[in-house]
TrEMBL record:
Protein name, UniProt field: Calcium/sodium antiporter
Main location: membrane
PANTHER family for the chain: INNER MEMBRANE PROTEIN YRBG, SODIUM/POTASSIUM/CALCIUM EXCHANGER
Any GO molecular function: calcium channel activity
UniProt keyword list: Membrane, Transmembrane, Transmembrane helix
Membrane topology per record: Multi-pass membrane protein
Amino acid sequence: MAGSLAVDAGILLAGIVLLYVGAELLVSAASALALSHGVKAATVGVTVIAFATTAPELFVSSIGALTASDSIALGNIVGSNIANIGLVLGASAVVRPMQVDDDTLYQHGPFMFVAAVALVGLGLDGRIGAGDGVVLLALLAGFTGFLYYKAQQNDVVIPEDVDMSADTTSAGVRDYVALVGSILLLLAGSRALIVGGRGVLVAWGFGDLFIGLTIIAFGTSVPELATSLVSAIRGEAQFSIGNVVGSNIYNVLAVIGVVAVVVPITVESATVSYEFPIMLGFTVVALAMMALGDRITRIEGFGLLAGYVGFLYFLLP
């Protein structure tokens, strides 16, 4: 038993590492290839990069729904969105209080709220089916169109750690190899995270929904956590906040939308009565913090972290 648990834990850690490396490689390769085909830098920032950083959730949820349980897919997204606000945004604010960018609040914030409300509304009947997935993907198309429109106006800030210089406009074979390699890493990391995480928590008596809400959600949030913490240390608050807001939008509209079209998702009553309200609560609190002050303070960051710890505590059986 102990030996098997140690193996599962090792597989879990390997999965987290592979997801992180795969996401970073995907951002770099996809950005270079898009620029080399004449796509504007700002457009790359809000489409290719935003989607690439959500790739771990997409791969893990899709593979989880197809090979393990649809509860893992839903739990991953709900748990990841809660973790993005409570853990990622909270930890970033503790590291350095963050000034709130008006564009992020007033242009992207409403989409984060709408995405969360749409997920809850579509899941109240206990099932998110193919039709619901199409609705979410339609909202995604609208959001992407809005981003593209704003990008054409050059209103989008590109993170400093993404190379958008003229040198990147000529992509080579290495970039195509890196793109394929990143996808393979994401596939391998997703499978390892599901197998290892499920093995560890099943051995401790936990179910698939709890697994998705906790350890798998944390694993897929590692890229956002690392990126936001580095951005906070650098003083790039607008990217830390924008990273969380954008990720939460894509998690619901892109990931749940795609998974629901492929595999109908069952929504348990406990999710409707507990996890959905918690996700909505974190979303409203985060937007209220951004709207009521010109920054998210360390005290508010500690409050978000405390809320996240409380959420995990009350999940325990």
